[in-house]
């Protein structure tokens, strides 16, 4: 560098003086750090940085300053913990007060978090005037080893099958979720493996039957194979007539909600409302989904709609009060910390 400066200075004295003057602006760093890229760089804004590294007295006092700084940090940390404890205690007091005094909280019977917001729902076939046993082959003899009802009908691309939703796009990566409680309400009279094989027999004769495809999906929902259930429901959506799609959409929404795609599930249930005459289950399902997403106002609307159709729908009534309780409680907690 000095050779270059000398050369410039000889040829252009004015420029040389400017360059030499610039060289006097030098920073002495006393704290170095390694960056994420592996480079070593100086760090000015550090407790280890010395403004005057040449001053021995300041250097000697540095350790005392660091100890003092450490004590201040510890005191601030303790004070922060005390404030957090006080805030938590205030929150607990407010929550207990609401749950013991608020009318909606009392009518709910328990906090919203204690409700199963992923409760399984299904549209019964009889609400559509269908007796599903009429479509199952009960005559053929069962083999020694049952084969489950895989849905393999050719399926062209269609927006009807909700292919645009993330949960459908990622259906081969989706988590399995078993809905064993459904068995008590649907196939209670039959051994599950046997009814599954009989549905398979029936699908072999009519692989585009939306009723059989829905039954196969219910079988897979109970067994806990979410991917196979979705495959059956995609085909059921494609091959069913419009008025029958509501049942299939509610079933699909359950799977999406149970496997972490609750926003997709809300879209699917909302679509089901356009196809069903009896919308109780759809409104109830949507109310649970919105409650799990923290959308309490939307959840309230859904539960009220379900109760408008069936005033004695107590399961929906308790959840409505729980949602109202939670919404008021959240608002009170926000006001408490303003």
From TrEMBL:
Keyword hit for Repeat: yes
Keywords recorded for this protein, A-Z: Repeat, TPR repeat
Any single Gene Ontology cellular-component annotation: cytoplasm
Pfam entry (one): TPR_2
GO biological process: actin filament polymerization
PANTHER family per record: TETRATRICOPEPTIDE REPEAT PROTEIN 17 (PTHR16091:SF1), TTC17 PROTEIN (PTHR16091)
Protein name per Swiss-Prot or TrEMBL: Tetratricopeptide repeat 17-like isoform X2
Organism: Paramuricea clavata
